Structure formats: C-alpha cells, structure tokens
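<goal> How does this chain fold?
<sample>
Here is the protein in question

***
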Amino acid sequence: MKKVKSDLHLHSVLSPCGDLLITPGEIVKKAKEKNIEVLALTDHNSAENAEVFEYYCSENDILFIPAMEVETKEEIHILCYFSDLNTLKKWQSIVYEHLPGKDNDEDFFGPQIKCDFADEYKEKITQMLAGAVNLSLEETTKKVSELGGIAVPSHLDRKNSIISQLGFIPPDLDFKTVEISKNISLENALKKYPQLNNYQIIKNSDSHYLKDIKAYHYLYLDGLNFFEFKKALKMVDGRKIILI
C-alpha cells in the first residue's frame, strides 16, 4: 500500500472567491513544491478550468481527480469526484441547467476566469456561479452516484455544510467520508459533533490563495488511479485516509 499526500479541495480564479493569482498551473506548481501527489480542483458549480488543470497535473506526474464543489438547493456544499474529464463535463452540464441563470455581479462576487493552456486568462464566465443550484442534497448525491462518482460533504464545522443547514447527516445518503475544515482539530471536531465518529474524516486546504495550499491528509492506495481513490473514500480493501 502506498501513502501519498493529497489535497482534494482547491479553488482557482474560476471561483468568484478565488485570488487572481491562483491559476491552474500555479496551483500545480505550488503543490509540486510541497510533494503533493494527488489533486482535485473543486471550483464552485463549474469545471471550466479542469481540462487545463489536468494538463498541468499530467506534466508534473500528479494524479488528477476530476471534481467540483456544488452548492445544493439547501445551500449545502458538496465535493463531487468523478473518474474522468468527460464525466465531469456531463456533470457540469447538469449543474449549469440548474443554475439560477443570472449574470455574475463581478463587483460583488469577483471575476470568474477561465484559463488557457498557457495558464493565461482566456475569458470570463458571465453566468453567475456563486450560490445554490436547483438540486436538492438527495438529488445531487444521486446524480453523482449515477455518473459513477462519489460525493463528500464539505467543511462540516463551517457554514454551508450539512450540519449548519440541516443539523445532522442524513443516514440514508450513505456517506462514508466527510470533510472538516483546516481550522479545527480532529479532536475538537469529534467533541463538538459526536456524529462524526461514524465517519472517516478528511481535511483539505480549501485554498483560495496559493500560500494556503497544503496537504492535511494521506491517501493509502495500491496504485495512483481514480478507482483506488474511490476505494479510499469508501474505506474498501484496506484503502483509507489518515490525517497528517
């Protein structure tokens, strides 16, 4: 079994809250400096920078996990992971169909920038990506599963989480892994939210700035590929996640 550093929650200049310096290429460069071997770019309700991100991961021998962070109708943030870029694009089409259909207010939310393969600004995404899509938590997790993906609830100790919005984690959704933020220790999280004892805990950087990129956990895998990664999130065949 191989132990690898991973960061599975990152935002680029595409996310309206992302810093203007956090381009796909610069993210990978910073992660490489920190010996991170598995990365997922989880921009808000969009994957417009995923293809460029995959290119830079490939150039640097880093496993690319196609991903997105979606905000459900209940204003719950969910990390969604997929096996390949084409499936992620299918998911993006579903998400786009359920966005509010408003133009982005750049003065309020900030710009939403798509990059090219030179890691330069290519265009602005004008459709508002901030806020909730018209998909419930149950619908979101079901559709992700139907596409062969896996969903992980985001930052349960913060706002826009399952706990902040619902007060509990619905057991019928069958989550195996849940995320806490980098701002809380595992010990304090388990004390504050005893229900987390029933789940595998992951922690990521949730970076919006290059300086914040950091690995907070190890993946234990028997090979670097999505199916091994999915086993780790499901705790199958000895695959698992251990916090650093």
About this structure: The chain has eight helices and twelve strands. The helical segments are 24-33, 50-59, 85-97, 106-109, 137-146, 162-166, 186-192, 226-234.
